[in-house]
Amino acid sequence: MLLLAVVWVFLLRYVPENPQFVSAGGGRPGPNVPSRSDLQEAFVPKATLVLAFLLMFGLVGGWLLAGRMLAPLARITDATRLAGRGSLAHRIRMDGPRDEFRELADAFDTMLGQVEAQVAEQQRFAANASHELRTPLAVTQTLLEVARNDPDHDQRELVERLTVVNGRAIDLTEALLLLSRADRRSFARGPVDLSLLAEEAAETLLPLAERRGVGIGTTGDPATTIGSDALLLQMTTNLVHNAVVHNLPGGGSVWVATAVRGHDAVLTVENTGSALAPHLVATLVEPFQRGSARIRGDHSGVGLGLAIVRSIVDAHDGTLHLEPRAGGGLRVTVHLPVAAGTNG
């Protein structure tokens, strides 16, 4: 329609209605030429047909083109609806050129994978926690039934066993609460020197190490990070405790070292012990996983030590790396952001 208006404004309106040419030589009129009406009658119907064709072609072509362009968006929308209904295993896996839709689909697939892994981990954690909590409760119920059915049973022994079982339930509950607190990142932050925490943890666990015949050595330079002093002390204590408990029966060793490497404050805890397979080491940070067997003892813990360590490290924007030592045992390395002004 704009083109038709241009033709009228710049062409047809300058054509006279009854044009005639007079010959230059003599007085005979020249031949008639098309008038404005003639041109309009010849041009307007054809232009109208072309306009109608262009309109239909534009509508159909635009509909097809829009459908083709928006097809990836429809796939992403369907995947979003499936995820909203709880189907986290679905993936878009969009092919084609790496355009904006492809990048959006890939980012959505990555997000779904992370959410699925987190949900699976939470479900597994809930199942394991229920199982671990059920055990002391079942033992408590059994002891109480024994006391009820046998009034002559040694009450002192019963009370001691109930105290041990109840203490284990309390330790497990406190560990779960600490793990939840670390996951929520609800804590105050301030400068924390990892070398001081390493010395404090080693001093606290020295009596346990001496009873087990394990030596603890601490070395390293000041390594200051920003975080929660209580949580980072718990992290360090868990690592040293794990290294002491899962060690050689006698004559074992634990080494704790701190350093500043680039932009990281590094804490390393190594211990002697039995040889560990790499695939087993990768599962040690899972809740309720233990090195070789489900050890039960006075200081075996509740199976949340390294899981709590990982949550604390994640809450402080750090990284946790576990690897088996060549001669047996485990090496755990924690990298945390170094405090400003202390880069090595």
SSE diagram, text form:
Blueprint: H1 2-10, E1 20-22, E2 29-32, H2 36-84, H3 100-149, H4 155-184, E3 190-193, H5 194-204, H6 206-211, E4 214-220, E5 224-227, H7 229-245, E6 252-261, E7 264-271, H8 278-281, H9 305-315, E8 319-324, E9 330-337
Parallel strand pairs: 4-6
Antiparallel strand pairs: 1-2, 3-5, 6-7, 7-9, 8-9
Helix pairs in contact: 2-3, 3-4, 4-9, 5-7, 7-9
Descriptors:
alpha+beta; five-stranded mixed β-sheet; two-stranded antiparallel ribbon; single chain; 344 residues; elongated; 54% helix
Task: Summarize this structure briefly.
The protein has helices at 2-10, 36-84, 100-149, 155-184, 194-204, 206-211, 229-245, 278-281, 305-315, and strands at 20-22, 29-32, 190-193, 214-220, 224-227, 252-261, 264-271, 319-324, 330-337. The protein is built from 9 helices and 9 strands.
Task: Give your account of this protein's structure.
- α2 packs parallel to α3 and α7 runs antiparallel to α9.
- About 2% of the residues have low confidence.
- 23% of the residues are buried.
- The strands form 3 sheets. Strands 4-6-7-9-8 form a 5-stranded mixed beta sheet.
- The protein is elongated.
- The protein starts with a helix and ends in a 7-residue tail after the last strand.
- Helices cover 54% and strands 16% of the residues.
- The chain is an alpha+beta fold.
